[in-house]
Every structure is written in structure tokens, then in C-alpha cells.
Amino acid sequence: MSRFITITIGICFVLLLALFLLKDRLAGFDIPALIGADILLALLSIVSYIIVNRKIKEGRPQAFVNGVYSATLLRLMMCLGGIFIYAYATREHLHKPTVFVMMGFYLVYSFTETLTMTRRAKQ
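^ that's the sequence the OP posted. Answer follows.
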């Protein structure tokens, strides 16, 4: 198993642990939706890693850039779709801070993936 996948799974478990430990303090938050968002983002990060890793093996800088763009677009569209589905399903009781925490999860996974992929591409 690659180092990135191990780091991604570790981040997923840390965020899940934080959600379980803080669920009493996060009374207004939709914890099942946050758990789903965390797991979805972890899986999307692993899929993105596989896409970019294949492009890195091609050896062309353009292939790496195309892989990063396609992986980022995939993750962004899936996250936007998930947030729209969540907002539509809970439109009367939508908890906006839950959506912002989901976006925070997106930023954490995006930052980790970008940092790791940039280092890998330099090698």
C-alpha cells in the first residue's frame, strides 16, 4: 500500500474519531452526513491518487497536469453533487455549518493530495 493511501486512511480515521468524540458538542450538526462526507472524500482522494499516479508514469509533464485537473474536477463535481443532494434532502432543516464543515473536509483532503502529488511528481 502506498504512503498516500495510508495517510488518507489515517486522516479519515482521525476525522471520524473527532466526530464521534465531539458529537455531544456538535448537537446541531448532522453527524451522519459528516461521516458520509468524510468517507466519500477519502475514497475520492484514493481514486484521484490512482488517476494521477497513472499519468505520472507516462513521463510527460502535460499528462501529470491533465491527471491533476481531471482528479480535481472529479472530486469537486462529486462534492458539489453531494452537497446539493444533502441541501435538497434537508431543505427545511438545512444546517449551514454542516455544509461548511463538509467544505473544510474537502480542503483537508485537497491540501493533502496536492502536497503529496507535487512531491511525487518531482521525484
